[in-house]
Amino acid sequence: MVEEGAYWLAWTQISGIGPVLLRRLQQHFGTLATAWNATKVQLGEVEGFGFQTLEKVVQQRSRLHPEQLFTKHQQENSHFWTPADADYPRLLLETPSPPPILYYRGEVELQENLGQKPMVGIVGTRQPSEYGIRWTRQISTALAKNGFTVVSGMAEGIDTESHIAAMKAGGRTIAVLGTGVDVIYPHKNRDLYKQILTAGLVVSEYPTKTAPDRTHFPRRNRIIAGLSRAILVMEAPLKSGALITATYANEFGRDVYALPGRLDDHPSQGCLKLLSQGATFILKELDELLTMLGAIPQIDGVEASTAPEQLMPTLSPELQTVMDAIASDALAFDFIIQQTGMAAGSVSGALLELELMGLISQLPGMRYQKS
Asked: Exposed (0-12), middle (13-18) or buried (19+): which is 13, by Cβ within 10 Å?
């Protein structure tokens, strides 16, 4: 039997099929294996599958063999996750466009993947001022010492400072690359790269040997935002990749914080813009920042409700299975499917019924939690 992960890989080999369409395929058919065997008419029912895309699928799908493709890919890329894997970072599954393949190198910490250890993204300009460097170091150190994992992009400037400070403080850090996980960019960060492999993780949606490309870096910013429960923008001019990350964070329902600066400082103009749009100020009192970040709900193993059992209505076996899979903290739709082993349509129907009964509530990003 071909694993579901093989179909995630196979679909990525068809031109015109990106993360968003893959997400829609999975939600429509329940599994990408089912979608792979769907007819042209059935595929046409999925939003975004126009005539040209359908023609590409029909032409290219017949030449691909998912199991063989997956085996060969494993030989060339020894470590990667697909959304079908239980270890795939759960917070990324909440986003509209999770990477179909997420490659990694380094030391995996399962609590991070399960969303049980808080991760905070720190981003900013490649040419920071002394002020930006100083506060990036202070904040990254404080986060690391208080159990947060620092996520950034291993670029020059703010990214580099955040990774180094977190590791010096004895914490973990994750670098999201715009290259393959075996390609160091910028090359001057080769020593930093080696340190991260021993004190954290390097991840990318691009396969090994992928060289730097200017189109890759804006796209990787969505992964930084998706992995993180909050994004801190330390210094950023108006035209900055950090603002792209903040935009993704807002779309994903993440909190955005910005370091205020002087009105006439070029590196602070992007931060001032974010603050004018509702981002939270990063103030001198770091304890206040840590308190706010610590108040962000985590995905934890939560004990069962202490409410009397007799108040819970009797549920059908199907509804009870879905109810048992949902914790008090928000859980993504895809993960509920994985937990229950039920078809997507059945899970969707059960969730609607449980919501009408007042037992669960739906949150943005197709997440559900007990009421």
From this structure: middle
Instruction: Give yes or no for residue 258 having a pLDDT over 60.
Output: yes
pTM of the model: 0.78
The three-class DSSP label of residue 246 is: helix
Residue 312 has pLDDT above 60, yes or no: no
Q: In whole angstroms, give the CA distance from residue 246 to residue 279.
A: 9
Dist CA 93 CA 95 (whole Å): 5
Bridge partners, residue 173, by sequence: 150, 200
Q: What is the pLDDT of residues 197-215, one digit of tens each?
A: 999 999 999 999 999 999 9
Alpha helices in the chain (DSSP H): 4-12, 19-29, 32-36, 40-43, 51-61, 66-76, 110-113, 130-145, 158-168, 190-199, 216-227, 241-251, 269-276, 286-294, 317-325, 333-340, 344-356
Residue 106 is classified by DSSP as E
Nearest by Cα to 78 from 220, 207, 200, 212:
207
> Please, which residues have CB within 8 angstroms of residue 141's CB and are 6 or more apart in sequence?
165, 166, 168, 169
Query: 203 forms bridges with which residues in the sheet?
Result: 104, 176
36-85 pLDDT, tens per residue? 999 999 999 999 899 999 999 999 998 999 999 999 999 989 899 999 99
Q: With CA atoms as reference, report the closest residue to 301 among 328, 339, 333.
A: 328
Question: How are strands ordered across the β-sheet holding 230-233?
Answer: 80-81, 102-106, 200-204, 173-176, 149-152, 119-123, 230-233, 255-258, 280-281
pLDDT at 310 over 80: no
Place of tokens 């904040």: 139
Q: Is the pLDDT of residue 338 over 70?
A: yes
- State residue 298's pLDDT score: 58
What is the spatial distance between Cα 18 and Cα 335, in angstroms, rounded to a whole number? 20
Angle among Cα 266, 267, 269 to the nearest 5 degrees reads 65
